[in-house]
């Protein structure tokens, strides 16, 4: 299970220079963490406590020296260290340790700063993890199954899109519920089916791929639907090939409703696919106040000239938000759906002593017109309400609205001329 509303991936650098900077910064924090006294820790627990403190010190120091905001959003970081250091040191296990670490970094209220325990760090790198096999979206205050993973335990058990999730293991699903089961772990899931009849199923988790999905299909009137769920090299190459194969299409619908983002290099290249010349992509702002303007990359661009509609919602994050905002501000696309996640900070991953990772925000971002999306999100040009009844009936109201936009010719026709520059 992967609730779409909480599935966020970082906006991150992928180039050689970025990797070198990340490695250098990862090894040289200069601010010492508040000392955590271990004298009163029982000898039998001392080794665990010392290991915990090493992880805590690393996280505290990385944030103190590397977070994009030198004022740390007003958080007294020394006081936070004094509060959470002893708690982290005496954590009985990894779960308790990372709960303490994330309570501390959570004070920053930062979309891209988070401590990942070793298992989650491995899952991120391998794009594999134990899953029940369905994705959820939040509609009208309820978690509803939006799609099944092919070959998953949920699909085999007969779970259907449109079912409402009530509880897992007897625990009701809350506003931000998320389950991270282990391989083979069995849990009872309680659903309401499409007729609101209760259904209880015992589902075992299985290790499945979390690689981004890609989908292309023809739409009425000769337009093309393209869905991709990431902004990594494989996604950008796939999109470029699809646009080149459909150069003569009158329009394209880009579905980013499940896209949590990816790398900034892929972002710049992907934006360039829709223009015949380089365009401004906004500004990244470092801790020291340096403002680095970014432009699209045009080498190998499809230079797609048809109309463009982009579908977004609350699960559209990071690079996907920036892509949408840049095309919107250049008059190149109409944005349809619901407000995006508001999670667009540029971040790096730093290794921790126990094999975990700290994802750390290192740069802020503003759009070409100076809008700050972090914490605010991007408002669509065409807002579309969505209901549980729509999902259960299989009605894609966003796509229907997009087709209406294409039919009405309300988007910029081409990347050529003033609107595409």
Essential attributes:
single chain, alpha/beta, Pdz3 Domain, six-stranded mixed beta sheet, 11 helices, 20 strands, globular, disordered N terminus, disordered C terminus
What does this structure look like?
It contains 11 helices and 20 strands. It is α/β, with parallel strands linked by helices and 421 residues long. The longest helix has 24 residues, at 43-66. The strands form 5 sheets. It has a 6-stranded mixed beta sheet, sandwiched between helices. It has 3 domains: 31-66 and 68-109, no CATH class; 128-209, PDZ domain (Pdz3 Domain), CATH 2.30.42; 214-420, 2-enoyl-CoA Hydratase, Chain A, domain 1. The protein has helices at residues 16-26, 43-66, 77-89, 94-105, 118-126, 153-157, 233-245, 264-272, 319-329, 388-393, 397-408; strands at 2-3, 114-116, 128-131, 134-139, 142-148, 164-168, 171-172, 186-192, 198-204, 206-209, 214-218, 224-228, 251-255, 280-286, 291-295, 307-312, 334-337, 346-351, 357-366, 382-383.
Write the layout of secondary structure elements.
Blueprint: E1 2-3, H1 16-26, H2 43-66, H3 77-89, H4 94-105, E2 114-116, H5 118-126, E3 128-131, E4 134-139, E5 142-148, H6 153-157, E6 164-168, E7 171-172, E8 186-192, E9 198-204, E10 206-209, E11 214-218, E12 224-228, H7 233-245, E13 251-255, H8 264-272, E14 280-286, E15 291-295, E16 307-312, H9 319-329, E17 334-337, E18 346-351, E19 357-366, E20 382-383, H10 388-393, H11 397-408
Parallel strand pairs: 1-4, 12-13, 13-16, 16-17, 17-20
Antiparallel strand pairs: 2-19, 3-10, 4-5, 6-7, 6-8, 8-9, 11-12, 14-15, 14-19, 18-19
Helix pairs in contact: 2-3, 3-4, 7-8, 8-9
């Amino acid at each position: 299970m992967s609730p779409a509303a909480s599935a966020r991936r970082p906006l991150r650098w992928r180039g050689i220079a970025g990797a070198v900077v990340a490695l250098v910064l990862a090894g040289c924090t200069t601010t010492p963490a508040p000392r955590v006294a271990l004298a009163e820790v029982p000898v039998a627990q001392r080794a665990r406590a010392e290991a915990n403190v090493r992880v805590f010190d690393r996280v505290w120091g990385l944030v103190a020296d590397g977070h994009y905001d030198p004022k740390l959003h007003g958080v007294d970081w020394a006081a936070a260290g004094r509060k959470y250091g002893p708690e982290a040191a005496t954590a009985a296990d990894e779960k308790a340790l990372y709960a303490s670490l994330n309570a501390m970094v959570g004070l920053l209220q930062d979309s891209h700063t988070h401590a990942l325990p070793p298992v989650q760090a491995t899952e991120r790198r391998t794009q594999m993890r134990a899953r029940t096999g369905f994705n959820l979206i939040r509609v009208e205050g309820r978690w509803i199954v939006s799609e099944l993973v092919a070959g998953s335990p949920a699909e085999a058990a007969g779970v259907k899109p449109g079912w409402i999730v009530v509880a897992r293991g007897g625990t009701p699903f809350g506003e931000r519920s998320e389950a991270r089961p282990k391989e083979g772990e069995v849990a009872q899931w309680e659903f309401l089916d499409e007729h609101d009849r209760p259904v209880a199923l015992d589902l075992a988790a299985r290790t499945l791929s979390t690689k981004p999905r890609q989908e292309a299909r023809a739409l009425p009137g000769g337009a093309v639907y393209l869905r991709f769920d990431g902004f990594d090299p494989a996604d950008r190459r796939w999109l470029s090939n699809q646009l080149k194969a459909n150069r003569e299409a009158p329009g394209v619908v880009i579905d980013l409703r499940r896209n949590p983002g990816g790398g900034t290099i892929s972002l710049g290249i992907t934006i360039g696919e829709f223009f015949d010349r380089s365009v401004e992509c906004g500004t990244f702002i470092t801790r020291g106040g340096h403002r680095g303007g970014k432009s699209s990359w045009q080498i190998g661009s499809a230079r797609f000239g048809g109309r463009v509609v982009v579908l977004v919602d609350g699960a559209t994050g990071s690079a996907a938000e920036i892509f949408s905002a840049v095309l919107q501000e250049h008059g190149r696309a109409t944005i349809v759906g619901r407000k995006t996640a508001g999670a667009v900070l540029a971040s790096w991953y730093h290794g921790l002593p126990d094999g975990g990772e700290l994802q750390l925000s290192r740069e802020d971002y503003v759009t070409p017109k100076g809008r700050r999306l972090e914490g605010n999100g991007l408002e669509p040009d065409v807002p579309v309400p969505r209901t549980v009844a729509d999902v259960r009936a299989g009605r894609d109201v966003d796509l229907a609205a997009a087709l209406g936009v294409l039919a009405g010719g309300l988007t910029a026709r081409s990347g050529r001329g003033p609107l595409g520059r």
